[in-house]
Amino acid sequence: MSGNPETEQRTGIRILHLEDSRVDHALVKFALQRSQMLCELVLVDTMEDFTQELTEGRYDIVLADYHLPGFTGLDAWQVAREARPDLPFVILSGAIGEAAAVEAMLQGVSDYLLKDSMHRLSHVIQRALEMADTRNAKARADAELAESRQRLAELAEHLQISIEQERASIAREIHDDIGGALAAVKLDLAWVGRHVDSGEVQQHVGSAMEMLQHALEASQRIMMNLRPPILDQGLVAAVQWLASSFERRNGLPVAVRYSAETIDVPHDVQLVAYRTAQESLTNVAKHARASAVDIDLSDQEGVLTLEVNDNGRGLDAESLRKAKSFGLLGLRERAAKVGGWLDISSSPRGTSVILSVPLGAGIGSDGAMMEQEEKDDQGDFV
C-alpha cells in the first residue's frame, strides 16, 4: 500500500490497526469519527500481514492490541522497531496489566490506552505523533550538528596542514633567498675589510659585520621556529632545544625529563608533540608569570605522553573557554588527528597541559602528505 505525500495529507493520518476483533476495530473507528479526527484506518490481524503492511505501506502510527493469537503487542513492537524505528506505536488493550504496561513503556512504546477509555484515543494519537515529530526533529538536528562538527574538524585539519606547508615554504625562502643574500654580503664585507687600510672604514665594516651576524642568527631562529630540522634528531632532542631556547629568551628554568634518550614515534605524532610543547611554552611566556617550568616526555605502556607544567598564576575557566583561544583549540585538533587527546588543567598554583597519543593509533593519509612536505623542504642552515 503506498501513496504520495499530497494524497496522504488530504486523507489525514494513516493508522495501521493490529486487532483480531472486528468489534473492537469498529469501536476504534467510531471513536475516531466522533472526535472528528481525519484519518485512514487499515486493519490487520496476523503478524504476517502486519509485517507486510509495515514494509509496503506508509503509515503515521500503529495501534495494536496487546493480546493477539500467538503473539503480543510487544512482539509486534519489536518488529515495527526494526522496520520503522521512527513510527509511533500505541498499545490499545482491554486487559493489559500494570507490569506489562510499564515493560512496554520501558521498551520504547509511545503510549498505551485501555479500551474502556476510548474517548481519549484521539488525544493519545495526537500526543504520540507530536512526540515522534519532536524526536525526529531532534535526530535531524543532532545529525546536522554532527555533520557540522565533522566539517569543522576537517577544516581545522586542512588549516593545520596548510599552516605547516606554508611554514616550510617560508623557511625555505628565508634559507634560499634571505640567508643566501646575507651570507654573500658577509663574504663581501670580509673582503672589503681585508683590502682597506683605513681605520674608520674598518670600524664601519666591523659594525656592519656585527649587525649582519645578528641578522643571520635571527633568520636561523625564525627558520627553526617555522620548520624545526632539530626534529630529524628525534623528539627528545627537539624538546630539549625548545626548553633551552625558552630559557635563553625568558630567563626561566625549564627542567626536561624523559623516559629514554630516544623516543621513536611516527613523524606526525612527533610534530604534534613538538607543536604542543612550543605552544605551551609560548603561553607560559605570555600569561603564566611563572618562575619555573617542567616538561615530562614518556612513551611508557604504548602511549606517548607530553606534560608541560608551570607554577604560574593559572588560567580561569573563562579564559580556557574564550573564543580567541585558537592556540588551544588547534592543539586539540592536532591531537585528535593522530588519535590522541589533550587535557588542560589550571589552578592558582599553575597550569598543566598533557598530550596523550596511543602509539598504535593509525595515521591518516593527510599526515603522510605533511610528512612528505617536511622531507621535501629540508635543507641546510646558513
Descriptive account of the structure:
By secondary structure, the chain is of the alpha/beta class. It folds into two domains: 5-142, Rossmann fold, CATH 3.40.50.2300; 229-382, Histidine kinase-like ATPase, C-terminal domain (Heat Shock Protein 90, 2-Layer Sandwich), CATH 3.30.565. Helices cover 58% and strands 17% of the residues. The chain has helices at 5-11, 22-34, 47-56, 73-83, 98-106, 121-195, 199-226, 235-250, 267-288, 317-321, 326-337, 365-376, and strands at 13-18, 39-44, 61-64, 67-68, 71-72, 89-93, 111-114, 254-258, 293-298, 303-310, 341-347, 350-358. The protein has a five-stranded parallel β-sheet with strand order 2-1-3-6-7, sandwiched between helices. Strands 8-9-10-12-11 form a five-stranded mixed β-sheet, with helices on one face. Strands 4-5 form a two-stranded antiparallel ribbon. The chain is elongated, with a radius of gyration of 36 Å.
Task: Provide a quick synopsis of the model.
The chain is α/β, with parallel strands linked by helices and 382 residues long. Helix content is 58%, strand content 17%.
